[in-house]
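Supplementary Methods, section 5.1.

A reviewer requested that the exact input to the structure prediction be made available. We therefore reproduce it here, unchanged from the version used in the analyses.
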Amino acid sequence: MAELWEYTKLIRSKNAGPFELTFDIMFKERSGYDLVLKSGKLSARSVAALYGLQENEVRFFAIEQILAFKISIPRKIFSGDVQDTDLYGGQFHGPLVRLKIDSSDSLTSSGTHSVPGCSSPNIPIP
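The structure derived from this sequence is encoded token-by-token as follows.
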């Protein structure tokens, strides 16, 4: 079974202000993007499970034109807090890197938002 990093050219995390993190996942080629999208292994549900969040706290977008996923989640510890171990949010992407992707998995669209001009299941943004 392959891992997410094998299909991508970039997986990164960074702050989106002091209270949120954003993840950018950019793919090498369309075939990898399509396989990961169709597998359903990368979704709001899976990100929530990886980071100990409720699914409704995850904003997840599939952007076909640039073969990328954009994900935003709340930070559990605010950037700059005395307990913060990553001021810039650049080390939170680790769990996504090793996410198992099985090409035989079927589409699980739960938690994927549709965005005009983006290829993702038609689930309205709340």
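The chain is about 15% helix and 25% strand. These observations are discussed further in the main text.
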